[in-house]
């Protein structure tokens, strides 16, 4: 009898265990298996009270979605306008979002809850973009709106997912200090719209940020703005903002290092105008130095002849004014490896038939033993070439020779043929290449008409992606510009309105109310076809289209 009871008890236990497992499996949230990846954000099924409600009196808002949701970075993403001393509390519960209003609401006021990218599905993290909830404590809603477009000031491309925000003029002091309450993100065409705004005076900004905190950080972010505030008393739909990267307000060295070959590198956060470098301690080291600034004067390399120091102080000077001093230290036991290497101007393994071979060394060169340099043309040694030092670049040499079509070339610079700074030497350098077909190149002739001969312009030819300037010429009067012997491809022409006549495109400055210099793109593309000269005209507009 006892044995039977034990069997019954054991069976009852297994029954309860099975029942518990079934209940748990039904209650558990399971991630769907298989099928295509979900890329759609959650959809709203119901709002209580309804969106755009008037005479609002509720203390809690509930929003139901079609799938399980989560909150992501809600402290950065969520905002409410007007702001409250006690911000609402957000809670995600399965498919529901609950918003508890902690503070007393103002009378006859329209409130906008902006969730940014705070609401996402729980499985794939797909967020809802520009999701808002609006209500009014009075009988009517604020109904004014501002819309427009955001572009990149340099490329003219539409800015996607740029943060556009407005600040009531009385609150403009929070710019760069606190995140805005009224904002939106641009769409795939760079367009934006801010709705349910009250009549007021505003300033508007567009921000392409790196950190995601919605606060402008000059060092990392790009900014666009309209200088003058505007009075919003009717809908505005024509605002145009151009985003640019500001030059840093205060000079700073962003990178500095003493290299393994004994040279020094420095990078700056500004483009200097007339830079100099001076070794101030030990002062005797300064005389033997060699300095090379980059084209934009925003970085440099220094070679010091005397490396016997324990530490050295270097001053950075611009236009005669000392900007900063930096100290480098070394151990007297430190040893340095100096191996001369050479870059080139080959495209793949092809040499532009209208250019000589350019060799770019990593050390200032003092001598090249031409007897150790060999040029093979179709495996046959050739003479008649020259090596000429570049008068403007201490690291560059030009290798000239009457190149021939359909020949394979091998250039060998023998070991120790090159002597550089501090008696540095090279291992064998080999360059293998062919002469490209001249039929793959052509020229572009552009007749340019200027609207004002008292002003300066810059005509730039850029690549298809508008990222690289492949040719540039200053324009002071109407006439013809020739871009000769360019590789076939798609190019665009743009005009820089060089207001300060310095031959460069200058960016803007928010604090000083300076906009970047205007850029206008010729609408048609300039396709250069192989072995076919193209002739075009550009009529520079007096004021470029926004």
Describe what you observe in this structure:
- Residues 38-137 form the SbsA Ig-like domain.
- This is SbsA Ig-like domain-containing protein.
- Keywords: Membrane, Signal, Transmembrane, Transmembrane helix.
- The chain crosses the membrane at residues 12-30.
- With 546 residues, this protein is mainly beta.
- It folds into five domains: 44-136, Immunoglobulin-like, CATH 2.60.40; 144-243, Immunoglobulin-like (Sandwich); 253-329, Sandwich (Immunoglobulin-like); 339-436, Immunoglobulin-like, CATH 2.60.40; 440-539, Carboxypeptidase-like, regulatory domain (Immunoglobulin-like, Sandwich), CATH 2.60.40.
- Helices cover 5% and strands 43% of the residues.
- The chain has two helices and 45 strands.
- The strands form twelve sheets. Strands 11, 12, 14, 15 and 16 form a five-stranded antiparallel sheet that branches. Strands 27-37-34-30-31 form a five-stranded mixed sheet, with no helix packed on it. Strands 39, 40, 42, 43 and 44 form a five-stranded antiparallel sheet that branches.
- It is elongated.
């Amino acid at each position: 009898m006892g044995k039977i009871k034990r069997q019954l008890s054991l069976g009852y236990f297994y029954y309860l265990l099975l029942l518990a497992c079934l209940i748990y499996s039904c209650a558990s949230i399971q991630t769907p298996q298989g099928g295509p990846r979900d890329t759609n954000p959650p959809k709203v099924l119901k709002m209580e009270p309804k969106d755009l409600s008037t005479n609002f009196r509720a203390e809690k808002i509930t929003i139901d979605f079609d799938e399980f949701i989560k909150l992501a970075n809600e402290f950065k993403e969520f905002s409410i306008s007007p702001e409250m001393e006690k911000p609402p509390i957000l809670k995600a519960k399965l498919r529901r979002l609950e918003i508890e209003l902690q503070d007393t609401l103002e009378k006859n006021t329209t409130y906008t809850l902006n969730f940014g990218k705070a609401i996402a599905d729980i499985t794939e993290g797909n967020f809802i973009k520009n999701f808002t909830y609006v209500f009014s404590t009075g009988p009517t809603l604020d109904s004014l709106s501002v819309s427009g477009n955001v572009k990149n000031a340099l490329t003219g491309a539409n800015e996607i997912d740029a943060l556009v925000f407005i600040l009531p003029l009385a609150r403009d002091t929070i710019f760069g200090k606190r995140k805005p309450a009224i904002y939106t993100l641009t769409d795939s065409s760079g367009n934006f719209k801010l709705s349910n705004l009250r009549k007021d005076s505003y300033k508007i900004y567009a921000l392409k940020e790196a950190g995601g905190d919605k606060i402008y950080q000059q060092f990392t972010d790009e900014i666009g703005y309209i200088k003058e505030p505007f009075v919003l008393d009717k809908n505005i739909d024509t605002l145009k903002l151009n985003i640019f990267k500001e030059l840093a307000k205060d000079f700073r060295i962003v990178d500095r290092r003493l290299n393994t070959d004994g040279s020094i590198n420095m990078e700056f956060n500004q483009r200097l105008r007339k830079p100099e470098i001076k070794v101030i301690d030990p002062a005797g080291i300064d005389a033997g130095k060699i300095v090379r600034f980059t084209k934009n004067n925003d970085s440099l390399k220094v070679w010091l002849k005397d490396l016997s120091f324990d530490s050295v102080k270097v001053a950075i000077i611009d236009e005669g004014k000392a900007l900063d001093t930096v100290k480098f230290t070394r151990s007297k036991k430190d040893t340095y490896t100096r191996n001369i290497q050479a870059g080139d101007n080959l495209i793949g393994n092809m040499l532009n038939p209208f250019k000589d071979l350019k060799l770019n060394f990593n050390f200032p060169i003092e001598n090249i033993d031409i007897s150790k340099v060999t040029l093979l043309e179709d495996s046959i040694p050739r003479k008649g070439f020259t090596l000429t030092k570049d008068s403007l670049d201490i690291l560059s040499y030009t290798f000239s020779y009457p190149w021939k079509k359909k020949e394979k070339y091998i250039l060998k610079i023998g070991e120790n043929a090159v002597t550089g700074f501090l008696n540095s030497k090279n291992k064998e350098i080999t360059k293998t290449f062919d002469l490209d077909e001249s039929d793959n190149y052509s020229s572009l002739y552009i007749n340019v008409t200027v609207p004002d001969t008292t002003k300066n312009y810059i005509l730039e030819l850029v690549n298809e992606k508008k990222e690289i300037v492949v040719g540039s010429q200053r324009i002071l009067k109407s006439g013809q510009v020739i871009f000769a012997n360019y590789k076939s491809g798609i190019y665009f022409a743009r005009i820089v309105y060089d207001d300060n006549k310095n031959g460069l495109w200058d960016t803007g400055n928010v604090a000083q109310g300076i906009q970047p210099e205007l850029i206008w793109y010729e609408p048609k593309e300039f396709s250069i076809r192989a072995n076919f000269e193209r002739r075009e005209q550009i009529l520079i507009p007096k004021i470029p289209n926004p």
